[in-house]
Amino acid sequence: MRHLILFLLALPGAHAEPWKASAGVAVKEAYDDNVFLQDYGEQARRKSWVTSVTPSIGTTFQPSPAFKASLSYAPEVVRYHHEPSENHVAHRWSANLGGKSEGTAWELPNSAVWIDGSRSGPTYTRSGAAAEVPALGGIPVRDRRDALILRNGFKLTRSLGPLFIRPVFSSYAHEFRTLQRNQTGYENYVDRYELGGGMDAGAGDKTKFFLGYRVGRQQQSELLGAPSPYSNTYHRALAGLEGAPAGWLKLNLLAGPDFRHFNTGVPSGFHRKRTLPYYDVSVTVLPTSRDALSASSRRYAQPAFSSHSVYEDLVHEFTAKHAFGETVSAGAGFKIYAGLWLQPAQRRDWVYTSSAWLSLTPVKGVSADLSYSRDWASSATANKDGREYKRHLVFLGLKYGI
């Protein structure tokens, strides 16, 4: 290791002080007026104050432009004062590597989250009978349960004059550590995994146009001992545009058809071979030095996490930010999150979120944030009382970092 560090320090452009360290702590007090995302039944309108404390540490090692490594760890300790079943600790790690040298740039991002929470899934009942789970499976409730989430990627961009090529790779694993039970109203969670990679080729400098192709596989695990028929392989043809064509405009556009081939054993009426739309688009406009407007939209298919099924994840998001000076900024946003289940499943869920926030930075390293959000969910299913809900969430946060 010593010889490697000495070699990196000897590279052109080597930094005299390659190490940087950071540390901080964030404290947040929130009020959640619908902890279990239910407007009906025994779990309806449960309210709680929520306290979270997040210390963080990090370090960056960059001996030269050719190599940079950033490591961080931030455990978030969350306590629900009136619903202790929702207490958890989210341990978040990241290890990001990258560098640039002579027409080559590479990135290797890695992140891991271990949620140390309840090993029991939530139970939704109404008059003793099973109730429907919240829209989209109740993601906020899910993310308090014991689970391990891993994300890894790799991207290498090689410039060939005005052209470039870019091999890419990504992986995702969501392992739920909750128990599966055949119990009235109990929500089981199903592990899912994805592995994919491919190549892009295009042209451009500050703004790049490219064509790409991806090959991958999605895997869904057993539910109560039964294998899933919804694991699948995919081929994805892409066209993309990314960069900053003007100083006030940033673009990231990626779209193309998704060719899916599902496992045998799917129910009658479900086509094993499908062509689905895929896109991941974001646009940021900077009308002034103090304002930022952004819009994003993405759509892709994946196996569900609470049943043996597959759905299209569709998200539209809009935000506006304004800085009133060096110490005060504010913003507002609106998000539409939809789950579109593939037939023969008769299920369509929408969650709408409006939000606003105010941020103060009185001195360097110290910030305070006040935020409010409102969720309301709707569902196109025959039994939707348990799926539709409203939720208000307000929090005040303080953060100190060095």
Can you describe this structure?
With 402 residues, the chain is an all-beta fold. The chain has one domain: Porin, CATH 2.40.160. It is 3% helix and 63% strand. It is built from 2 helices and 21 strands. It has helices at 2-9, 139-142; strands at 19-32, 48-64, 67-80, 88-101, 104-108, 110-116, 125-126, 129-130, 147-160, 163-176, 192-204, 207-220, 232-246, 249-262, 273-285, 291-303, 310-323, 328-341, 348-363, 366-379, 390-401. The strands form 2 sheets. The protein has a 19-stranded antiparallel β-sheet that branches. It has a two-stranded antiparallel sheet with strand order 7-8. A hairpin with a 4-residue loop joins strand 17 and strand 18 (328-341). The chain is globular, with a radius of gyration of 23 Å. The two termini are 28 Å apart. The model has no long low-confidence stretch (mean pLDDT 94).
Main attributes?
19-stranded antiparallel sheet, 402 residues, mainly beta, single chain, two-stranded antiparallel ribbon, 3% helix, 21 strands, Porin
